[in-house]
Fold each of these.
Amino acid sequence: MNRDRFGNPERILCAAIYVDTGKPEPARMSYAYPKTGIVFCGWRHGDCFVPLLDWKHRLTHQEVEAIEAIMPHQLRGRRQGFLTSCGRFVDRRDGWAIAVAAGQVEDDDHNMLVSEDLY
């Protein structure tokens, strides 16, 4: 089990969408933040789309092509997951396991976390 910088067990903080641009983007405050790309965070995944789409519309055609070459359709929010208390972006499956271990959700037949499970 991962622990945050205060020694607490890792928890799910919020919904997130990850876009891998192939290059370092903003300055990193967390040692675990993805090495390349941007993580857009929000209360629900729908809240992540507003800044994602605003950012996308500011990109040049060449930048969009380069990003889509890494993974098609990622600028449409294809890589949805969560941000953890350790600064990690995790997918929905890993998010479920972390939320169960942290006692944020009860273990049942789910295997993928959605933000509605949390709040």
Amino acid sequence: MLSRIVLRNSAWGLIAQFMIKLLSFAFSVLVIRKLGVDAFGQYAAVGAFGAIFVFVADLGLSPYMVRQIARWRSDTGGHARAAQLYGTVLALRFGLSCMAAVLIILSAWLTRRPAVMIGAISLNAVTLILYGFQGSSEAALAGFERFSLSSGAKIANQFIFVLVGGLALWLGFGYYGLIIANLLGVALMTVVCWRAVDELQLHPQVMSADVWPVLVRASLPFGLIGFALGLSYKFDSVLLNIFRSDAETGWYNAAYNLVFSAAVLSNVFNTALYPSLAREAMTAPDKLPPVVERGLRYLMLVALPIAVGTAVLADQLVTFLFKSGFEPAAPILQIIIWTVPLMFTSEMLGYVVLITDQERRAARSVLVSTGLNVTCNLLLVPRFGFYAAAVMTVVTEAVLVAQHMWTLRDLIRRLNWMTTFLRPLAAAALMGAITLLLRSQVPLLPDVALSGCAYLLFLLVLGSIGPDEWRFFRGLRAPVEEAGRS
């Protein structure tokens, strides 16, 4: 059954990504504590400059490649076509990555960043070239639904980054040491992914250069989506660094990092769901509505308590995680945490739009919301700072969700919103009341634990979880071969 395939794909990625993010989260807290507000603000801005131009290094070739390989792999001659696409994407992404690196460095110079930041941005740009090879190989693995291989590569990358980065912080190399650690981690991840693809007997073969423009045009809608998302997520950090201060950039990104630590759950689930649905939607489109409904419900069961609980405990969380000097991040966290349920929803609906071959509408939706984000941030961030950036992040995601729902309105009408959204929301609201009552009575960690238990109880009472969920998750215990035959 499709739900079992999707869940097993998610489980492989979820286990790996949970390990990665747990390690990454703990290390990011250490980084923020060690660097301090100003240096962390510069480090966040260095990453933001790179994220804005990563679109040029890919142009949507990777997600296009995942979809095509997922569709071809069972066809006669599909393996050979996949090898040709893989080789061509490798060649294209190498050239595009070099171009993106030049643009990143030029943008830092034109915006008159300090010399220390320009040097860091230049060093960080080298990772784009490595990602050209790694990203192409990971896309090939995803197309064949070999998530365990790419997940293992990500674990190795994070391990090297934490190990070398921790040593660099201890030796006093600052965020330059972190950038070098990231380079080493990405290099190792590239080698692992490359060898994993080779084990699939997928040897790269470059298509004729005459085909390249056609390939770029076909992938460009995916690329525009990636560009718009990168711009909407990181443009505010660049503006804060240019018009406000390193400290304000640091406070904002301390809160922002907590949001993206939560977003990994949605990303893993939807990344695993994408190739399965891309294949199944062509042969059994009637399965799409129930899978979307169940997927959204599970995502809301996770996202809503995270948003409610964090909003109630934001000041205590910031004080617990970061040392003194980061208190201004608490009100920002209370605002920006509401991006989480919106982000969970927009990501899943966006993938549904893509697998129904409406990538141009998806690109248009993302461009509209990003255009709103960029325009309002340009007008408001120089004057109102990180409060404006936080509000616009939430508004941008809400606008994107609304557009995806309109595009999928026929499917959306068929969903049961009482079970998908309203019951989880009611359980989360009741949990929030318990959390608020306990916050002045017990320490932070017991409050979180007791509130979590109360949330599960409310879900059971309201009927949001039950025997059906137990049967669904028991599918994880089935052999992979059985899941593949279902």
Amino acid sequence: MSNLDVIEIKAFIPAKDFELSKCFYQDVGFKLASSGGGIAYLHCGNASFLLQDFYTDALVKDFVMHLLVKNVDGWWKQLEDAGIAVKYDVKIGKIETQPWRMRDFVLVDPSGVSWRIAQNTD
């Protein structure tokens, strides 16, 4: 029988300005593990994604990432203290309690990709 174990899954995040997006994600707290050929591999703890030097409005319009963290207040404060919204002209929403038992906020990257950064409440 074949070994069907999964190692990981990563999304390809579109970037309108690839270099700007690489800087943005590093300032947010992701580490750049590699970059070449229009793809950058970024990670933070057990979370990772591939940033791609590719963009279309249609792709970004409904593209949403979800990042589950232990301390949503800490993440929000880190982004505010770093001036991410002003530096990159992006939106950082307020922390809200959701009916699906999470507290989260929305961060929109320079290309328009939405991130819901959340913490479980239970």
Amino acid sequence: MLAFLAVSSPAQTPIDYRITGKVFDESNQGVERVRVCAIPAPADYIKLPQVECALSDSQGNFQIRTGRPSHFRIIAEKSAAGYQSPQYEFYRNPTLAPPPEVTLSETNPTANFSIPLGPKNGALIVTMIDATTNLPVENARISMCQVNNPRICSGGVYKNRDGLFKLVAPHVPFTLRISAEGYEEWWAPNGLGKSNAISVPSGTQIELSSALHRKPEFANRPISEAEKQPLINLPAPVLLSPADRVEFRVYPRHTKLEWQPVEGAAYYLVEIDVCDGRDRELRECVNPGPFSATRNLGPVKVVGTTYEFDFVGRQPGRWRIWAVDGKGQEGFKSPWRLIFYLK
């Protein structure tokens, strides 16, 4: 009889890939609750689309466990306090060095950085009203471009029922253009002059008022909800599902919206927004922006009383519906319903 001796090899200890460091302000003091992220090289991100982040402590120290080797770009931001992410060229401080980069490997699994935040970005508070009714303009597309390099721009669709919008300003002079459905374009600071420049000093806040003039074809048409009238404009649809503030723990994030039919409706418009999802504990919709599975960022036209889509990320979203009659008149909009996607 042959005897076999089993020899067990020692378990291999996983490599702890880590990036540590400190973020500090202009006075060389550490800044707490700065979100620091290690963005992997594109080829590695395609294989595993995951970005690891950490919050700095009360002394400004941070530690990111990347979980893998790669070439990383280190991004630090605390936008709520005025430190915009340098990932966006439009907001980047030209006096600071580019974000640090590092390669972690089996032989070099750790790295340490000191990251200066530099001066805070300024802020621009824009109030938009209808020049005819003095009612707030709730939705608008805002475009900003640097004066010295017009190809460097930022913007998007902004939404606020009070017509009040807070915009982050760059560290250099820029132009600002406002466009909204039914209105003529408006250019800061006085509505005219496409080449007029605006400057917002670092860490300061400037207020700007804009009165948007209607296009002739919208002169007698209701644009805001306050202008719509019962018995003339169709009532808001009754929403059925999902319920308000529901939490979904499924992936893919396939979602089906359902609502009751409205008598006299030729079709419906479905509006879906994506909300800021960086604070995982927050159960509200912050900084809503339009979601669309197509290049069209506006509401989706639907014939019927259901609509299905795949949501974009692990974050909050919201949705609402309104009916359009045979003459093309829009009805009252339903209230917003929130959805929280947790996977």
